[in-house]
Amino acid sequence: MIVNSYAKINIGLHILNKREDNFHNIITIFQEIDFCDQISIEKSDNFIFKSNVDWLDNKNNTCVKAFEIVKQEFPHISNVKIFLKKNVPTNAGLGGGSSNGTAVIKTLNKLFSLGISTKKLFQLSKKVSADSPFFIEGGTQFGEGTGDKLLRIKDVLNERYILLVLPDVKINTKDAYKKCLLKDKTNIKFAEMLDELKNNNLSSELFYNDFEGYVFKTHPEIGKIKLKILDLGAKYASLSGSGSTVFGIFSNKKDALKAHQFFSPHFSTIITNPKI
């Protein structure tokens, strides 16, 4: 079986506070995008994992972890051969690894006809990473808690063109959380964010990313990318997750292509669309 493993962006990301389990409570809107890795899975006598990149640990990654999680729940299933064609960069704020793990769990469910319910898929994906549950259903979802309390949202993002600018910088998410200045925000409400989205208004007062303060300070070039995307006509621009990807949302393809042309000589750039 061959499946696509889609990336995501965060439209606003607010870090509320640190939890007793050392994770953080957040508020964000996840948006799945049409930029993906490809995963091939087939039954095999021996477990084999391979990829098209040399920087991925073939024994310790989210695809391997996902198989082990399912195998523990369903010991009778055979081994598999997994090949991951990697397009989405790691440590870029696009959820590539989380998506890979969830895609493997969902595919194993189909490959072995396990009949795992959506609720159970969600529980298994939580063992992969904090972002993995989002990819069970994808689309547009409001996320709370560690990102695992999710609510599906429909028909809110009208703009169809998203530019991704991918600096060759790796941001460690754990380090970013440690360095962010927490203000113990409790006044940000989902209803306000949803109303803004429905009104096609991505105001910087509600839809900002708390990681930007740390990332832009340590990597000023990333902050400059965001400002330039806005200068080039984006309706909204932001760091995705803890970075380093910066994205811009455009109302028309012409402006998106113009921005792509500006950045492409210097950075890896992609024009994609939201998956609704």
The backbone outline, from C-alpha atoms, is globular
Helix amount, in percent? 25-40%
Computed Rg? 19 Å
- How many H/I helices? 9
Biggest β-sheet strands, sense, barrel: 6 strands, mixed
Mean pLDDT, nearest integer? 92
The tally of beta strands, per DSSP, is 10
- Unreliable segments (pLDDT under 50, ≥5 consecutive)? none
Broad structural category:
alpha+beta
Order of helices and strands: EEEHEHHHEEEHHHHEEHE
Proportion of residues in β-strands: 25-35%
Give the terminus-to-terminus CA distance.
Answer: 24 Å
Explain what this protein looks like in three dimensions.
It is built from nine helices and ten strands. With 276 residues, it is α+β, with helices and mostly antiparallel strands. Helices cover 32% and strands 29% of the residues. The strands form two sheets. Strands 1, 2, 3, 4, 5 and 6 form a six-stranded mixed beta sheet that branches. Strands 8-9-7-10 form a four-stranded antiparallel beta sheet, covered by helices on one side. Strand 1 and strand 2 form a beta hairpin.
How do the strands and helices of this protein lay out in sequence?
Blueprint: E1 2-18, E2 24-44, E3 48-51, H1 62-73, E4 79-85, H2 96-111, H3 118-126, H4 134-137, E5 140-144, E6 149-153, E7 161-166, H5 173-179, H6 190-198, H7 212-218, H8 220-231, E8 236-239, E9 246-250, H9 253-263, E10 268-272
Parallel strand pairs: 3-4
Antiparallel strand pairs: 1-2, 2-4, 2-5, 5-6, 7-9, 7-10, 8-9
Helix pairs in contact: 1-2, 7-8
